[in-house]
Amino acid sequence: MSKLIWDRGRAGRRGFRVAKPQTPEVDLVAYLGNEHSQELLDLPEVSELDVVRHYTSLSHKNFSVDNNFYPLGSCTMKYNPKVNDAASQMSEFREVHPLAVDALQGSLEVMHITQEYLSKISGMDAVSLQPLAGAHGELTGLMIIQAYHRDRGSERDEVIVPDSAHGTNPASAAMCGFKVIEVKSKDGMVDIEELRQKVSDKTAALMITNPNTLGLFEKNICEIEKIVHDAGGLIYYDGANLNALMGIVRPGDMGVDVMHFNLHKTFSTPHGGGGPGSGPVGVKKHLEPYLPRPVVVKGEDGFKLDFDRPKSIGKVASFYGNFGVVLRAFVYMTVLGKCGLRKASELAVLNANYLKALLEDVLDVPYSEGTMHEFVATSKDTDLTALEIAKSLLDYGYHAPTVYFPLIVHEALMIEPTETESPETLEEFAETLKEILKNPERSKSAPHLMPIKRADEVKAARHPVLTRSQIAE
Fold it and tell me: Stretch 342-347: mean pLDDT, rounded?
């Protein structure tokens, strides 16, 4: 094999050079298209201290929940206890090969217990850990619903989605081949009368988030469930906001037939920056045969993977799901226990309501009655847009909240503090927002203190930089 050799001389130059391969068959230099076997590689010569300082400086430019407050909450960056990471790095879990079933007993037991935990928390009868993200869980759940109706000889092809739903809901339904039927909101809730008009013998399911994206609990959930079930449809529950309900209300007790969990949200593995995710699916008994295979089961000889499921929709991911996230969620649930999970939800709701009260004199909250774990404010009555407020927060060391969602609120700021933030942090954040609103002119050109200053958004949209050569220019 070729190797790098430190050259102390050669025409007054110092640096690494590639030694000519000793084995004739392996000519690395020729492979690289260089005819000079002793050509130097011009690598920078720096001290270890300079290298350490360089990468430490880069790390400080990263925004993390470990050093700053994320007001966009469990959707992307809920605090992840360090014990979760410690468990996920244990060699007994990390180094085992997923095909070495005989060596997987510990991992399979973790998966089986996690399935049972999620079933108890949700009121569902069975769980598959296979889906790799929330939207993937939605698609899986809808495929299960589709298989269920087809098995009964019914070709229902419509899925009803509230206008306040997460964008992945209609996208998942469309990807599964369903026609998406939108139902409007009334006072922030599903319009019951319009729902009655939209259900039909074509309705396969209603997708609902509860609490919804406005942070409101659908008080008419039992009536909604009856309307859809009476029409022969099923209830799909988007579990993205389960952080408000753990240990308090179970979706299965609200008439839900199938749901997904966001382990990377509710159960503490942040997926800021795009990953990793995990979106297990829970179902009631009548949908259990259609779960993805395999499912972890407990037998007389230990735990095993059950592939013998003739009505299954099949595998939806390689192997058995994102095990690292499942393991973190298992530790989180085990450490907190039943009472701890309920306490987490209670604190999440308390923090959201406290922060809303701190801001009510400067920001309007259109739908404020019965706020759960998050609330949606609007900046339409201020001198700043939601985007300008978001950019200004960066200068003060805060991550921006979710902006312009849900779409039914103009200039929306969705704020979710989660359960782990202290009252002092919430008070400081509220004071910062008030300061920003008092100085609108400065905020219109923010951020000022970030490595990248105010971007020209129109130019960025019309002339995107897509290649390295464009960056160099």
Answer: 96
